[in-house]
Amino acid sequence: MLSLLSAAVLNLQPASPGIDFSGVQDPLGGEPTQALVLGTAHLRQLPEGSFDPDDLSLVLDRLAAFAPDVITIEAINGRGCEALRQYDALHPGVAERYCWDPAPALEALDIRFADAVLSMEQTLADFPNAPTVQQRRAFALLFFAAGEPWSAAVQWAYLDEGDRIAADAVTPELAEVFDRFASSLNENNQIGVRLAVRLGHQRVHAMDDHSADIIQHRAPDTLGPVIQSVWQTPIPGTDEMRAQAMGYLGSAEGMVAGYRFINSPAYQQMTIENDFGLAAATADEGAVARHYVAWWQTRGLRMAANVVEAAGNAPGARVLIITGSSHKAYFDAYLDQMQDWELVSVNAVMHD
């Protein structure tokens, strides 16, 4: 079977943009913002026993050497989750699936959600260089109230184990939740939170988006069966590449090589050919499969916009984007269109 990408999926269009924004504008006032898009497996979903967090040691060393000023993760921020709750009828169950309810923290602080978000922003601006244990606990609680549980986990992870207790308005139930986030196998914690603490950051930036799920809600009932059919279409070489990716698990050196592999153009091409590229090429009745492609692209564009927002007040910053590997190629393409953003190669960071 011919490669979809080399055949017709990404062919040149009859018309092209009059101005090409790819690359970095020249001249540019100051240094470009640098974007390292790290595609990753969802670590918590790997087969039980196949992933040891200690094997990330060299990956974290390489990322610490890149020294990102901004760390973004694939999670929905507090404002995004609040909007999903408000319009649950337009994307049923999405907030329940992807968001944590901030109500217990709001109740503990006796404030409204909007006030928690504003207080979080002010606290970030005024947070001391050497916070006390009490300030760390209080900030963890405030982050959670503002719908930012992974940033709450950053504050919790700074604390010694004996200080991770119910105090300073943190209830026993919330202390348990914070413990779960700070020990999660999710890459948001194992890479994002761990790296944030190592580099002295006070937060991670949640950049995922699921408001685009309204496209799936509007789609005909045939969308699900059509996409299942797309996923079941055999593409030669796929099983071998996926097996090779799993083969890197088991050592710190292997994890570094594995991240180079799953971020490589060949692996990224395989990912697209088995999913969104194949869906776009599917000639089903009414082009239903393309509703799925529209959802993915809308979600990706909004995620990329959230990344640009996260670094928007730090021109020239180094930005690490930690995301599922299926997003990697799209992030690279979207961020490359920013006038003052420069892509950083994963190979250049994940060296031997």
Determine the number of helices (DSSP H or I, runs of at least 4 residues).
19
Number of strands: 5
| Helix share, percent | 40-55%
Rg result: 21 Å
Order of helices and strands: HEHEHHHHHHHHEHHHHHHHEHEH
Low-confidence stretches: none
Q: Return the structural class.
A: alpha/beta
Give the percentage of residues in beta strands. Answer: 5-15%
| Mean pLDDT value | 95
Q: Terminal Cα separation, in Å?
A: 34 Å
Task: Sum up the overall morphology in one term.
Answer: globular
The biggest beta sheet reads: 5 strands, parallel
Physical arrangement of strands within the biggest beta sheet: 3-2-4-1-5
What does this structure look like?
The chain is α/β, with parallel strands linked by helices and 352 residues long. The chain has a domain at 79-186. It is 51% helix and 8% strand. A 5-stranded parallel beta sheet has the order 3-2-4-1-5, with helices on both faces. α5 packs across α7 (133-145) and α17 (289-310) crosses α18 (328-335).
List the keywords.
single chain, 352 residues, alpha/beta, five-stranded parallel β-sheet, 51% helix
SSE map:
Elements (H helix, E strand, L loop, with lengths): L3 H6 L23 E8 L16 H10 L3 E7 L1 H9 L7 H5 L4 H7 L3 H14 L6 H13 L3 H10 L13 H11 L4 H13 L5 E4 L5 H5 L4 H9 L6 H9 L5 H11 L2 H9 L2 H6 L7 H22 L7 E7 L3 H8 L5 E3 L2 H4 L3
Parallel strand pairs: 1-4, 1-5, 2-3, 2-4
Helix pairs in contact: 5-7, 6-7, 7-8, 8-9, 8-10, 17-18
